[in-house]
Specification:
OB fold (Dihydrolipoamide Acetyltransferase, E2P), mainly beta
Length: about 140
Amino acid sequence: MSSRGLNLCTLAGHVAADPQVRSIERKTGGHTQVANLTIYVDRIPSRKESDSFTVDITVWEDSAAWRKLAYVKKGSLIIASGAIDASPYLSKADSQPRAGLQLKANDLFLDSSPKAEEPIATTTPVQAPRAMATAEF
C-alpha cells in the first residue's frame, strides 16, 4: 500500500508587486481568469540580515482566494494556503540548477482588513450632560 501524502502549505510574506491578472482559455472551452503574484518569505530564525526567498503564487478565478485579491497590493502582508510545487530552472549567473517554489492558492488571509476612512471630526464642542433633578415621592 502506498501513501501519496498531503500537499498543503501555508506561507506568510510581503507581496513584491501588485497581482497580474490575465485571461486564459480552458482546455474544455471557455475562458477563465488567473492572477499571479510573488511574495517574499523571511527565514526564521535567520542569522543573516536579509535572508528571505520568493514564492510565486497562482490564484484561480473560482477559488476562495480570488474574492480577497482586490485587497492585495504591493507591500501587503498576506498568508497564502494551498498546494506547493518546485519549478526547476538554470541560474543565469552560474548556470547551476536551482528550484523555485510555486503555490496554487486555495485561500488568502490578509494580515489586516482594509481600513475604513476616518470620520471627520466635528468643530462644535461637546457639552457636558446636565445634572438630573431628583424628585421626591
